[in-house]
């Protein structure tokens, strides 16, 4: 039986590279509560990402929940149904009513025109998602927020290292939230971060993620336990040494897919505008009516070949029982998101995906499309360069 090929797979540096970090933690006897690796990683990520204030979290969902708390968001928040369900769960856990708006058919992000049409007197904020790391129309969203006096929190779970017009997308809005889950380009096993605009807000966030403690005897507000521990932080410091080479490996895989699938009728590849960087966090394709088989039939063929492609995001968040009763959740309000969720398929992409395994993926897709042979250019491509510490 062929080996399983998942959509994503965490990059794990050699064990011997991690052991010195664990020894330092063991010697320091500080395993959490803002230890040295935690402090180092916050500073290193600020430098790498081009942001000024960043607070580490144990996972991205707690970071989203805490960011909404820090911003004192209430009432209704306009968001996308085309995302991972944690985006909307964070609203629910804060007692906020999600209002779904439709997405743009090209970027797959919230459509600014639909945002404006969804605003009511109860609207207090907008929660867009940089889907697959593709930047939202941040300028248009900022104009809407300014006109209506709304806050903006970006779910940037997929957008590590992404820039728009030369600037980090994390610097837009009031705050942005990253995920460092094992499936992400940069990971700390589990983890996340909030990016904010000033030192005062960072102090507020840091209080919230540590039970509200300002010092040993002072609790200034009701907080939560969402701190990143020293083992996660140390792993992040190690991962950061490899992240540029991880990005290069992903880019090579994406280029091979694009070469192999160019011109295949009924298979649409996701494009990123020229003014934005592409981080290749996922490789989504859309299987339209012009393809010989349906998206779900292709999904089943890939699964039969031990290729674990993912219909990501399907179903829409608005179709889950917890949210489908909302007035904004109906398919008539979300025609584009509804259509795309039934077409989308994410193909495997991760640094350890070798050429032979990628060729298996391509062969199944091309066979389903009716194309007899795979791309000769792909099969002649050299192996990945080794992913080593810099």
UniProtKB/TrEMBL annotation:
Coiled coil: none
Cell wall biogenesis/degradation as UniProt keyword: no
EC number: 2.6.1.33
InterPro entries assigned to the protein according to its UniProt record, in alphabetical order: DegT/StrS_aminotransferase, PyrdxlP-dep_Trfase, PyrdxlP-dep_Trfase_major
Domain of life, source organism: Bacteria
Molecular function terms, GO-annotated: dTDP-4-amino-4,6-dideoxy-D-glucose transaminase activity
Record keywords: Aminotransferase, Pyridoxal phosphate, Transferase
Enzyme class: transferase
PANTHER family: PROTEIN RV3402C, TRANSAMINASE
Family recorded in the similarity comment: Belongs to the DegT/DnrJ/EryC1 family.
Protein name: dTDP-4-amino-4,6-dideoxy-D-glucose transaminase
Species of the source: Paraburkholderia metrosideri
